[in-house]
Write a structure and sequence with these properties.
mainly alpha, 0% strand, elongated
Length: 142
């Protein structure tokens, strides 16, 4: 076989007889940016991140209140601050006509939980029966 020579049956070459179809562009050649939509999308992203942080701070504050590490005055101040932040965010959502702050992250799911958990998870894992009582005490229970 010589360099550049192609061997095969004629029917094998029929698939290559026609020129290939031109590739279909995946993205538009021009990006049509409307300033109002860009601004609204950016505000939605920022408010979504703020909502996520607000929810995390609220959960942490509840854990600290339940654990007794916050005084009543501190708990009241944190509650008032979170409530004021929630009201300001509602005003911004209304101003920019944003319905939902929950962003779709594709295969990761949504940014925010749609439903609040019924019970907050325990801070420490549950101990198995007989833990810490000694080997003999746990054998007696069996």
């Amino acid at each position: 076989m010589r360099y550049g020579e192609v061997r095969g049956r004629p029917e094998d070459f029929e698939a290559f007889a026609e020129p290939p179809a031109p590739p279909v562009p995946r993205l538009p050649r021009k990006i049509n940016l409307e300033p109002e939509k860009v601004e609204r999308g950016l505000v939605q992203l920022v408010l979504s991140l703020l909502e996520l942080i607000r929810q995390l701070v609220e959960k942490q504050a509840l854990r600290r209140v339940e654990g007794g590490s916050l005084t009543a005055a501190q708990a009241e101040r944190v509650g008032a601050t979170l409530l004021e932040l929630e009201q300001k965010m509602a005003e911004l959502k209304e101003h920019f006509e944003i319905d939902s702050l929950n962003l779709d992250l594709g295969p990761l799911g949504n940014l925010l939980d749609d439903e609040a958990p019924a019970k907050s998870p325990p801070l420490r894992p549950a101990r198995p029966p007989g833990f810490g009582r000694g080997l003999e005490a746990s054998r007696r229970d069996e």
